[in-house]
Design goal:
The protein is built from six helices and no strands. The protein is an all-alpha fold and about 120 residues long. It has one domain. Helix 1 runs antiparallel to helix 2 and helix 3 crosses helix 4.
Length: about 120
């Protein structure tokens, strides 16, 4: 297997690439004032999203107001949107409820259960 040091073209270009990435990460850290650079190093997937100029300028403005890079703001917005989505479909939930109702479980009178619960708090 050929390493980076084995290819003369890469030997010349690779240090420049590493330097450029390091400078960019330092700029990000200075801009955001946090450990965003460390987070960026561990990320492995890239997503390209195209916006028209006006929409991009709005997003850029919102990110700036939050003292974030556009990428950080977009990641946060996508994370919030993903967390707002239900993890399981309604069909799967209904199937679980229907399955559970096929069995008989021991159930006490509601007043008795509330009483026992309350007495547990008082101990």
């Amino acid at each position: 297997m050929q390493g980076i040091g084995d290819d003369p073209a890469l030997t010349t270009v690779y240090p420049l690439f590493v330097a450029a990435v390091s400078i960019h990460l330092l700029e990000v850290e200075v801009l955001t004032g946090d450990n965003t650079a460390d987070i960026l190093i561990s990320m492995s997937k890239r997503l390209q999203v195209l916006f028209d100029e006006g929409e991009f300028e709005e997003i850029k403005g919102v990110a700036a107001r939050h003292q974030m890079t556009v990428a950080d703001w977009v990641r946060g917005a996508l994370r919030e949107a993903r967390q707002a989505e239900p993890r399981f479909s309604d069909t799967r939930k209904l199937t679980a409820v229907r399955e559970a109702t096929r069995f008989e479980y021991p159930v006490a009178d509601i007043d008795q259960m509330l009483s026992e619960t309350e007495s547990g708090y008082q101990e």
